[in-house]
Amino acid sequence: MFPQPARILPNERAPSRLADVLVLGIGLTLFTFVLSAARNWLGPQSPTAEISRHPSALPIYAAYSVLRLGVAYAISLVFALAYGYAAAHNKKAEKILIPMLDILQSIPVLSFLPGVMLAMAALFPSTQIGIELGSILLIFTGQVWNIAFSFYSSLNSIPRELYEAARVNRFSRWQQFTQLELPYSTIGVVWNSMMSVAGGWFFLMVCEMFPLGDRQVRLPGLGSYIQTAAYEGDIRAILWGLGAMVAVIVLLDQLVWRPAIAWSDKFKFEQVESAAAPQSAVLNLLRRSRAIDYIGSKAISPLAERCVRFFSAKGMPAIDSGSPARKTNWLGRLTMAALVAAALYGIIRAAMIMANLTTLDLAEIGRGAGATFLRVSVSLLIGAAWTIPVGVWVGFNPRVLRFAAPLAQIAASIPATGLFPVVLLVLMRFQMVHPGDGLGLTSVLLMLLGTQWYILFNVIAGATAIPTDLKEAAAIFRFGRWDRWRLLILPGIFPYLITGLVTAAGGAWNASIVAEYIPFQEKVLYTTGLGATISRASSEASTTGNFSLLLAATVAMALMVVIVNRNVWRRLYRLAETRFKLET
Q: What is the pTM of this model?
């Protein structure tokens, strides 16, 4: 049956005053902090905050970073659901939206940075909210794409018989979305949400401290704390910052992600309930809260019921076969014409900006594209080689999942950029890194630190989502290890694996900007690559206003990602939607 009823433990629903006190205390704390942050954001603009390296400043810095990540994630989730839904249900829109998604996920954060921050500062010239919104939007660009890919892939993997059942029961689009599509995709969305927040931590240092024109923008947060410590070569402060980050990640895992994983298990598509479902003490405690139960029964449930009634098929007007279709057709044509006009204008403007590129610039972009492509390919191969078997092992063992999931979340959330100074100090001590091209092989390691988790989290999600009845059937027929992988595991995780590889590839291209060009101890360690070109051009654009090389390198990176996606990943997606779809 789909979805499964939630598992009720003994005394789980018994009301608890402790649960009410904790919920009330956490709620008041969050409300007070959000009010304080809002007051600062609406205050006078102060883009160059003084960052203290004393450990006592870490709690407030951590709170500001979590607030930015939370706001960016909320925007990312809404955008990803709408984007994935439109791409999956409109074949004409899919031809535009998916290539756009390929391009957008490959454009590095630093390419957005100068334009976004200058625009936000211009929109809000006298208040701090412009700089804060710019930072949140930059974090959003590092979070949203893998959730959108996951939701789009899940919608295309829904068995046909479930859609037929929805049509037989005359579900409206809203009912189909809330009672079929959203539940079916919940497991993938939850695990990719964990990876999205990890991606936000990865680029937190870039989004909280960066050059803008002739000044250095610094926002209070863990990212700026670690980056300031890295610039000063203060290893003790770096370790304090990383320790605070690990503590925050563990807290978020226990309060947010562990309950979300346990809650999402009830949406597993299977006919036999698993004997060992994920559990969360926090979720069990929240279920015993009378305050949450009261809010759910008096506010959330009535609102949900009103939405169902409003969007139900009976309440929708009948569709006339004449003029509405023509209006829809004309609306589609006008939208397409507007998109084509905007694309042509963008191409012309880009061509005008890039007109003054020299032959040396073009040669640098060509060499860099080839070098970065090789590093991305090697990092994907290394990442897949260990994440597939480990992810399947974790997903198939609920007991292992209980402690492996938070460890993976911690490892994925610790930004590789925060580890770069430590890694480089070790490598330089052994004379394995030198300024110049000596960073080549090291940059592959640095890319791997930030991208392998996309594959791991999706493989775990895919292994977790394999129905228990299929696992039991494989045991009954006594599948050997090879048949088990060939007939059950690989087909079951294949859609999730492709999503992980696509987002990991985009993340590797994006990570190249911080893995190929690293300011370190008043020096710059770099290697040939598009990431190094974009980083150097972004720094120059902030001071000289020369965007030609930055734009050209970004366009080259986007084109390479689109070519690979259309010739490799798109075909594998089609294979996942046809041959490896879970249906009868």
A: 0.73
**Helices 548-564 & 530-544, crossing angle to 10 degrees?**
150
Residue 323's domain comprises 319-352
Measure the CA–CA gap between 447 and 455, rounded to whole angstroms: 13
- Are residues 106 and 561 in contact, defined by beta-carbon separation less than 8 angstroms? yes
Asked if residues 13 and 287 have their Cβ atoms less than 8 Å apart, the reply is yes
**CA–CA distance, 250 with 405 (Å, rounded to integer):** 11
Q: Residues 342-396: pLDDT tens digits?
A: 767 777 777 777 777 888 888 888 898 898 999 999 999 999 999 999 999 988 8
Query: Quick check: is 288 in a domain?
Result: no
As a whole number of angstroms, the distance between CA 405 and CA 462 comes to 14
Task: Name the token pair of 531.
Answer: 């990431």
Q: Is residue 303 part of a domain?
A: no
Return d(Cα 274, Cα 532) in angstroms, integer.
49
Same domain, 333 and 197: no
| Token duo for residue 25 | 């205390």
φ/ψ (deg, to 5) at 356: -95, 15
The rounded mean pLDDT for the chain is 78
Considering all CA atoms of the chain, what is the largest pairwise distance in Å, rounded to the nearest integer?
A: 76
Q: Tell me: do 142 and 198 sit in the same domain.
A: yes
pLDDT tens digit string along 186-205? 988 998 888 888 777 767 77
d(CA 289, CA 297) in angstroms, rounded, equals 12
Place of tokens 């000044």: 215
Task: Give yes or no for residue 8 having a pLDDT over 50.
Answer: no
Q: How high is the pLDDT of residue 388?
A: 94
Residues 335 and 195 in one domain: no
Cβ atoms within 10 Å, residue 104: 17
Does one domain contain both 509 and 544? yes
What pLDDT score does 435 carry? 47
pLDDT score of 440 = 61
- Backbone φ/ψ region at 219: left (φ over 0), alpha (ψ -120 to 50), beta: beta
CB contact set of 168 (below 8 Å; sequence gap of 6+)? none
